[in-house]
């Protein structure tokens, strides 16, 4: 039997926190583990949502 945390999908898991940076071209690096967990690929499109002091990315 798998551990409970291994059975949950990224959408079901609690929040995870990472540090990244903004390049001089305005690009933000999404950490490798998040890209793997969500199956993100180069060319994927996102909606960017700004709310107060938070910025969210939602794949479309």
How many helices? The count is 2
**Structural class, please?**
alpha+beta
How much helix, percentage-wise, in residues?
10-25%
The succession of helices and strands, N to C, reads HHEE
Q: Remind me, CATH topology? A: Pemi-like Protein 1, Chain: D
Give Rg in angstroms.
14 Å
Task: State mean pLDDT (0 to 100 scale).
Answer: 85
The major pleated sheet works out as: 2 strands, antiparallel
Strand order of the largest sheet: 1-2
Task: Report, as a whole number of angstroms, the end-to-end distance.
Answer: 34 Å
Question: What does the model show?
Answer:
This protein has 60 residues and is of the alpha+beta class. The chain has a single domain, classed as Pemi-like Protein 1, Chain: D (Ribbon). 18% of the residues lie in helices and 20% in strands. A two-stranded antiparallel ribbon has the order 1-2. Strand 1 and strand 2 form a beta hairpin.
Secondary structure blueprint with pairings:
Layout: H1 4-7, H2 32-38, E1 46-51, E2 54-59
Antiparallel strand pairs: 1-2
